[in-house]
Amino acid sequence: MTEEMKNCSYCSEGKLLDAFGIKICELPMSKVILFREQSHRGRVIVACRKHVDDITGLSREERIQFMEDVNRTAEVLHELFHPDKINFGAYGDTMHHLHFHLVPKYRDGFEWGGVFAMNPGRETLTPEQYEELIALIRSKLQG
User: Can you list the domains of the chain with their CATH numbers?
Assistant: First the structure.
């Protein structure tokens, strides 16, 4: 593992990832991570399993599989949480690893009609609630 990968929360996992997320499972080309801040119930990150800065760093086959993983995750979020819309965010100005934020949005909920905050710091869960949410999402993604 390169030094850059050791400093990447998605590659090294551990403490770096624990600061903002909890790994749910791996899909063929990605890792699905529950975002600890749950102002948007079901918010997750789909991070590429390959350490690349953006989608252009993937081969055609890898890109297709990564987007299939993003789509599969979005389908599961729709099935489980029935959002009115899922916002997709792929930034990476400071985190140089391809990842998408999937943010379920609800018409009568927080931040409807606007861009989602990166980390609004409004709602965290108990360890038991995190475990329950992770198990629910994992069962659908791997089922």
Answer: 20-142 (3.30.428.10)
